[in-house]
Amino acid sequence: MDLLTFRDYCLSLPLSEECTPFDENHLVYKIGGRMYACADMTAFDRIALKCDPDEALVLRERHAEITPAFHFNKKHWNDVRTTGDLPDAFVRRQIRNSYLLALAGVTPRSVRDELRAHIEKAGLPL
After folding, report:
1. Could you write out the DSSP letters of every residue in the chain?
2. Average pLDDT by consecutive 10-residue portion of the chain (126 residues)?
3. Which residues contact 126 (CB under 8 A, 6 or more apart)?
4. What is the CA radius of gyration of the chain?
5. Which residue from 49, 4, 52 is spatially nearest to 30, judged by alpha carbons?
6. For residue 57, what pLDDT is reported?
7. pLDDT value at position 121?
């Protein structure tokens, strides 16, 4: 997966927000103010993605391209290498899972429910 494909996919997710809160080189994607993906634009060699802790361990065991995220909580975040052999469809699935995990953490519940309703209306199954 290249940077433009990554960016296009993240922005295709309903209500996804793009920002650069850390510096001008790191793209961050959020839903409801909660971060779900981060990547370096200049050296696009990995994507940091939120992940269920149990699933994160399984993915790391199965795929050499998936490691604990470098600058994030290693229990909840994985780095997915973009230079490896992982198919784009697999990487997109991991981005989508990260997006849905971030959505689950949106508070207050009324805002989360409003976002969910909009996302379902847009056609993304929850």
Report:
1. --HHHHHHHHHHSTTEEEE-SS-TTEEEEEETTEEEEEEESSS-SEEEEE--HHHHHHHHHH-TTEEE-TTS-TTTEEEEESSSS--HHHHHHHHHHHHHHHHHT-SSHHHHHHHHHHHHHHT---
2. 96 95 96 96 96 97 96 95 93 96 93 90 73
3. 100, 103, 116, 119, 120
4. 14
5. 49
6. 96
7. 87
Q: How far apart are CA 121 and CA 73, in angstroms?
A: 32
Contact partners, residue 24, CB within 8 Å, separation at least 6? none
Closest alpha carbon to 5 in 39, 55, 52? 39
pTM over 0.85: yes
